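SAMPLE LOG
Freezer: B-3
Tube label: C17
Construct: single chain, 270 aa
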Amino acid sequence: MEDKRILYVSSEVVPYLPENEVSLMSYDVPKMINDQGGQIRIFMPRYGNVNERRHQLHEVIRLSGMNLVVNDVDMPLIIKVASIPKERIQVYFIDNDEYFKRKATFTDEDGVLFPDNDERAIFFAKGVIETVKKLNWVPDIIHVQGWLASLLPVYMKHYYKNDALFADTKVVTSIFGTGFDGILAVDTSEKVQFDGVPHDSIKELDNPTYESLMMAAISHSDGVIAGSEEISSNLTKFIQASGKPFLPFAPKETFADAYTQFYRNQILGL
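STRUCTURE (predicted):
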């Protein structure tokens, strides 16, 4: 993958958040491509439980200062950056005091989903793409991992569909076995439709469960990867029915070759 540009958009990444399937793969895969000579960028939200001092985050003034509209409300975009020690990998953090200052990722102290998680996902998707545009860094592939990042494929295929910068960019989504219980806000679909996304293309979001979000992401991706050994039968059937290029689960010992070949052959057609 030498010199190929891959943008990793993840809801969780180690070492900034605790280890789980999503956060580990969101570190291991970019590191693998970086070691192969690929050019990578990682984006994640700057949750309030990310320790800015320990990880030496600092604001990038030239990238900050934009306002993003979420459901007809202007929300300021703040961009911060840090480097993963010893790896020479830059991580960009999408920040906004209203959405990400609270000291938790997705739920309150009682385990209840934050009521604005849908708006946080919209803000994150738009914030990533707007920042990449400001960087003028054109990715060959955007690889999405984690449910809070799952609206990015939708926005790429609709909201940014006429943006010449991304004319040749392909989108890959990893599907994991664990997400969240319950549903997001009942008007999630309406908030996405506000940005010109046709309802017919996101009918799954009428009932915004974890599986529904993943189905919307799959429908708008150019390829799908199983990030977990166990994925629900509903999602497995949906992936099969989609006809999208699909990479079955590959354990850490063998995933380097599997991912590289999938990127090259199935996604980029090299």
